[in-house]
Amino acid sequence: MYESEFPLDDSVIYLNHAAVSPWPQRTATAVKRFADENVAFGSRNYPEWVNVESRLRKQLQLLVNADSSDEIALLKNTSEALSVVAYGLPWKPGDKVVCTSQEFPSNRVVWESLKKLGVITCPADLSQHDSPESAIIACLDNSTRLLSVSSVQYGTGLKLDLVRLGAACQERDILFCVDAIQSLGAEVFDVQACQADYVMADGHKWMLGPEGIALFYCRASSMDRLDLKQYGWHMLEDALNFDSPAWKTAGSARRFECGSPNMTGVHALHASLSLLHEVGMPAIEQLVHENTRFMVDFFAQRNDRYRLLTPTAAHQHAGIVTFRPLAESPASLFDMLTQEHVACALRGGGIRFSPHFYTPRKKLFKALEMLDG
Ligand SMILES: Cc1ncc(COP(=O)(O)O)c(C=O)c1O
């Protein structure tokens, strides 16, 4: 239905949105227009650029259901936002951070790096309990200051029940941090429902934007807990008053943005999110889940040839399906798929397919047919 927004080369079967997405046509148009404007007029229209930036904050506010766009900062990437949290909090020796054993390095390394301050990182083994959430909750104790999880795991595609985890944190007075890069743009996300304090996600996966511009949601009531480690003009309350010797940091999440914004990224992500909002996140979520169900059913019918590494229950997956061939190595099958122009990834011990809402069913079917060969 939205195929015209994605004029990918005919030869390409793009099942790699969990890595880096293709841009929608409108994003390319917005960036070209921005480039032409820069060439012809420089920054003459800077006030309009600032308008686009504030509309982007509003789009992101809606995407996560934040109370206000003052809770949205625009950072470089997910890792930077995780570092802002990790190095902003006041730690004591013996404090504990809980994450999971399946996290992408960005959501593990940053916590492990706090070892020098005496902070202990505890990766919950998700296979040890009746549910992954129970395994995580079992790790929360009196020393735990923060739980940091990916909403959807990059390797297995496991989706966690954030509402349950957020409630468990709330009961125990533990901060809740969510790396949402594998679900924002693919699924409805609600910071009110899950009671997250901090949420981060770069734009280049399911949000269909470019690399290098990321959402950092910081709950207003949890903002002052983060000490600032970077300073500059852009983060000040009165940012355009360059002459005043007195200054104070912004009351909003702009305090995390020290200098000039990534205006090219702002224009690109703004265009990409306009498409997501036009289609509507509930509709996108449904289409993503239909694609996932199609793939899960395919592998369930071929369990003599493939082992599915993604949970089959609908509430435990989003847009990622990872599988392992039983008769050959994932790497050799991956090479074959790549030669056939199927964009996918080797992750989590298998091959990861991640189509988006617009992925034509016939293309998805064509890729799956290759696995029957
Ligand atoms: C769960 C998860 N977090 C973080 C990242 C990387 O984040 P960034 O490059 O925005 O720092 C990835 C990339 O694959 C990811 O899958």
| Sequence of strands across the biggest β-sheet | 2-8-7-6-5-3-4
> Taking Cα atoms only, what radius of gyration do you get, to the nearest Å?
21 Å
Bound molecules: pyridoxal-5'-phosphate
What is the assembly state of the chains in this entry? single chain
Give the overall form. Answer: globular
| SSE topology string | EHHEHEHEHEHEHEEHHHEEHEEEH
Kindly state the percentage of residues in helix: 25-40%
Number of helices: 12
Uncertain spans, ≥5 residues at pLDDT below 50? none
In terms of DSSP E residues, the strand content is 5-15%
User: Class by helix and strand content?
Assistant: alpha/beta
Largest sheet: 7 strands, mixed
Distance between the termini: 29 Å
Question: How many β strands by DSSP?
Answer: 13
Mean pLDDT: 97
Q: Can you give a write-up of this model?
A:
This protein is an alpha/beta fold and 373 residues long. Helix content is 37%, strand content 15%. It is built from twelve helices and 13 strands. It has helices at residues 25-41, 46-64, 78-86, 106-112, 132-139, 162-172, 191-194, 220-223, 263-279, 281-300, 330-339, 361-371, and strands spanning 13-14, 72-75, 96-100, 120-124, 144-150, 175-179, 198-202, 214-218, 306-308, 321-325, 342-343, 345-347, 350-353. The strands form three sheets. It has a seven-stranded mixed β-sheet with strand order 2-8-7-6-5-3-4, with helices on both faces. The longest helix is centred in the C-terminal third of the chain and has 20 residues, at 281-300. The radius of gyration is 21 Å and the shape is globular. It binds pyridoxal-5'-phosphate. Pyridoxal-5'-phosphate is lined by residues 77-79, 104, 106-107, 150, 154, 179, 181-182, 202, 214.
